[in-house]
């Protein structure tokens, strides 16, 4: 990720923590909920890996291709699962956004006046980046509203395990949406 180092590391920590909680969520709930948690865990850890500041570790070309393949596969899986629920369509958009950002990170090979940034450009297509920013801003707002007390779906639940708490799952989705916004801003 191009940008300041400290926010990059904070983003890595947030995404890794979210991915870890999603792994915990895979231990409880229905098969459908476990599948969604698995997809979110892949997204969280993948976002953590992609958010490592470029000043610390510039990803080699094979790693960028690896990101594109992994998230392309995740997008296909989410598209297949979308037959059963609309939430998987969000996973399709998220996975394809990660493919887009991976391709935007790829070195272009054209030198230039900036010796420290040799082989890199500012990245992506401004219109597509803008559309994705609007989508994820809307997603963050709608998810945040569902976390408010008294909102639909935010009713208090009886004592359940940490892996089955719906408000924590929403909080994870909210944090990944915010992280996606932060990553898209750097494209």
Q: In words, what does this structure look like?
A:
Helix content is 66%, strand content 0%. Residues 111-120 have low confidence and may be disordered. By secondary structure, the protein is mainly alpha-helical. α5 runs antiparallel to α6. The chain has one domain (5-107, 120-185). The longest helix is centred in the C-terminal third of the chain and has 22 residues, at 126-147. The chain has helices at 5-25, 31-50, 61-81, 87-105, 126-147, 166-185.
Query: Low-confidence spans: pLDDT under 50, at least 5 residues?
Result: 111-120
- The proportion of residues in beta strands is under 5%
Total discrete domains? 1
Average residue-wise pLDDT? 82
Helix content: 55-70%
Report how far apart the termini are.
8 Å
Total DSSP helices: 6
Briefly, what is this?
With 187 residues, this protein is mainly alpha-helical.
Which characteristics define this entry?
mainly alpha
Outline the fold blueprint.
Layout: H1 5-25, H2 31-50, H3 61-81, H4 87-105, H5 126-147, H6 166-185
